[in-house]
Design brief:
heterodimer; A: 238 residues; alpha/beta; six-stranded mixed β-sheet; four-stranded antiparallel β-sheet; 8 helices; disordered C terminus; B: 459 residues; 14 strands
Chain lengths: 238, 459
């Protein structure tokens, strides 16, 4: 089943009097359980596409189906609810709340859920995830006491707390050294492999994109050629 | 489910405040100072307002004077107080049956000479009354001695209490207690001296007074209904030394042949009942004066058996001028304090708004993140609003305690009267909450309108 189905998505920004077209008719579909890398040079429109995929933004025209549901017409509140329940975000600069413990950071998305979840359940679920990302002994530390890799793992735990069907990672290794990048990417692969979570990873780094099962190139607002399973064949798509 | 969300939002707001305790407490300081100032002002204001009210009440602002109506004969009226309709029982009934009346005392007036040794003086007021008179006038503190008692009134004892002016004029500063003064050749033992009260609103010396049981004045001194005429003229004893006796004879000519004892016995004057000149009553409070007037009017009409078409045979006077002064004084006071309160709270509110705006800018990334992970605009709005209101309410609570402490300290150190005002406490809680909502709303609204994409990218 298609988790994501984009049909002729256009996005145009209005800068003063001038219209700047950023996405010029993008159609693509992502299946459940896929691990996709979105690649493109800066200014190619990959961030805009990512925002639309993450329901943070609405396309100017075109249709976007998420789990078979048309969502380009949803209201802002409904999109917020969808983001909360179905999509987990991992950002380049982690975006953890300062002066807040790891545990509380991980629980954060549950603040906005509609599920009637008790404090104890929330804490339990968060601790499970913290354990899974290997930070059980750091649960009560604050982000400033953690390394970059550890912070990103906290962010991944936070993204997973609502058991989303899609994990959107925007340059998740951009601020990490190569060693920790490998750790984080390994975690993504593991999540995708073991839990079957669909992952869309935005990057401009081919070494990172290689970890994905499929690479989608974007240039100048349209999709270039898609490359399946680069890691299997060992090729690096340029 | 909605309830869960609201609860969690409130907790989020509290957590956010705890993350920056110094800033939160400094912001709340504006409100703390504002509310504390309001509380202190209100308490001092109420304290002095109560004192002013007591002072004005001391001047007789809540007193009611009941006078008998006018007598008329052949179309000629004789003015207020000429018909003999008020009785001492009326005074007792007013006290007992009018709930708005705090105390009432009958008054029998006389105007005559008071003599002590070789000095004499005509006091402005010679009042025959009951001990309740002092309660009506709020004059219960005595300079020396004691007030005469109810049993003195029942027995028509020849005792009196005198005001400071009489002490000065007759006793030359000596203690008069236990001495005897003569009023129309009747000896009155002085049992007490009133404290000084000064002039009344009309400028009349209120200390120029002699109070005695009304029975004594009525039966032993005046013998008839009092008039304001100087009754000393009929006292004997001065004609022998008056050298102008021939020019100004002070013996009255008798125009009719004097009645013999038999004749007097045969034609008794129709004595109907004991009448008194006035009843002085005080209302329970300043606000209850109109009610007291209505109750007294109804009661006296019943007691005097007046038909509905008949006019009142008495007049009731209140001190309207003083009442107006009193109410304008206290409303001026209240308005003054209200404006001070408003200014300080607005300053505090602007402080809150300022900090909240800075906070929204500073936490743009956080807001963006919260929106990305599913917070709706209204969740963000609620969070920032709750933060502002919590700061205001906490500040308000601390401000109330601080204000109370300061006003206690002021009472203790400066001996200023203060009075705890529940209304001030409740209103400052309400006002600080609404300041939080009003001044917290704009920053919160601004935060809720942020675009999550822009906010996440904000550096």
């Amino acid at each position: 089943m298609n988790l994501i189905e984009l049909q002729a998505i256009y996005k145009t920004y209005h800068v003063g009097e001038i219209d700047v077209p950023v996405l010029k008719g993008i159609s693509l579909s992502v299946d459940q359980g896929e691990f996709v890398a979105l690649m493109g040079a800066s200014g190619s429109g990959k961030s805009t596409l990512m925002n639309i995929l993450g329901c943070l933004d609405r396309p100017t025209s075109g249709r976007y189906f998420f789990e078979g549901r048309e969502i380009s017409t949803l209201s802002a509140d409904d999109r917020a609810l969808l983001r909360n329940h179905k999509i987990g975000f991992v950002f380049q600069n982690f975006n953890l709340l300062p002066r807040t413990t790891v545990l509380e950071n991980v629980i954060l998305p549950l603040t906005y859920t509609n599920e009637p979840i008790t404090d104890r359940e929330a804490k339990h679920r968060a601790m499970e995830l913290i354990k899974r990302v290997g930070l059980a002994d750091r649960a009560h530390h604050e982000p400033s006491q953690l390394s970059g890799g550890q912070q990103q793992r906290v962010a991944i735990a936070r993204a997973l707390i609502n058991r989303p069907s899609l994990l959107l990672a925007d340059e998740p290794t951009g601020n990490l050294d190569s060693h920790t990048s490998q750790e984080v990417l390994a975690m993504f692969e593991q999540l995708n492999h073991e839990k079957g979570i669909t992952i869309i990873l935005v990057t401009h780094d081919p070494n990172v994109a290689r970890h994905a099962k499929r690479i989608i190139y974007i240039s100048d607002g349209v999709i270039g050629n898609s490359d399946f399973r680069p890691s299997d064949s060992g090729r690096v798509a340029i | 489910m909605k309830f869960f969300r609201v609860l969690r939002t409130i907790r989020t707001a509290l957590k956010a405040l705890r993350r920056n305790p110094l800033r939160a407490s400094l912001t709340a300081l504006g409100i703390i100072i504002g509310v504390a100032a309001v509380i202190v002002m209100m308490e001092i204001g109420r304290g002095s307002s109560v004192t002013i009210q007591r002072t004005i009440a001391n001047m007789g602002a809540n007193n009611l004077l009941v006078m008998s109506g006018t007598a008329a004969s052949g179309g000629v009226t004789f003015g207020a107080g000429t018909v003999m309709t008020l009785t001492p029982e009326d005074a007792a009934a007013i006290l007992k049956e009018c709930p708005a009346v705090r105390s009432a005392a009958p008054i029998v007036r006389a105007r005559t000479q008071v003599i002590y040794e070789n000095k004499n003086w005509v006091p402005v007021f010679i009042y025959g009354t009951t001990p309740d008179y002092l309660i009506v006038r709020e004059w219960t503190t005595m300079a020396q001695g004691e007030m005469f008692t109810e049993s003195d009134v029942r027995n028509a004892n020849k005792v009196c209490v005198i005001g400071q002016t009489l002490v000065r004029e007759l006793f030359n500063g000596q203690s008069p207690v236990g001495k005897e003064v003569r009023v129309k050749n009747i000896s009155f033992k002085v049992v007490g001296v009133l404290s000084s009260k000064g002039a009344n609103m009309m400028g009349m010396d209120q200390d120029d007074i002699l109070l005695a049981p009304w029975t004594t004045i009525k039966y032993r001194v005046t013998g008839s209904s009092a008039t304001t005429a100087n009754q000393s003229a009929s006292t004997s004893g001065s004609s022998e030394v008056n050298t102008l006796n021939n020019l100004y004879p002070n013996t009255t000519l008798s125009l009719y042949p004097e009645k013999s004892a038999t004749q007097q016995a045969d034609t008794p004057l129709p004595v109907r009942f004991t009448n008194i000149d006035q009843i002085l009553a005080s209302a329970k409070s300043f606000q209850e004066i109109p009610l007291a007037i209505r109750q007294i009017t109804q009661l006296l009409r019943e007691r005097h058996r007046l038909q509905t078409h008949e006019p009142d045979d008495f007049n009731i006077r209140d001190m309207t001028e003083m009442s107006k002064t009193l109410s304008s004084t206290s409303s001026l006071m209240t308005n003054l304090l209200l404006s001070v309160a408003l200014i300080s709270l607005i300053v505090g509110g602007v402080g809150i708004m300022n900090i909240m705006l800075v906070s929204v800018t500073e936490r743009t990334r956080e807001i963006g993140l919260r929106m990305a992970i599913g917070a709706r605009g209204r969740d963000i709005l609620r969070q920032f609003l709750v933060e502002a209101v919590v700061m205001c309410l906490t500040g308000g609570a601390i401000g109330i305690l601080l204000g109370q402490g300061i006003s206690k300290l002021i009472t203790f150190m400066l001996r200023w009267p203060t009075e705890t005002s529940l209304a001030a406490i409740i209103s400052s809680v309400l006002v600080s909450a609404s300041v939080g909502i009003i001044f917290g709303f704009y920053p919160a609204w601004k935060a809720s309108r942020l675009d999550p994409i822009e906010a996440l990218r904000y550096e």
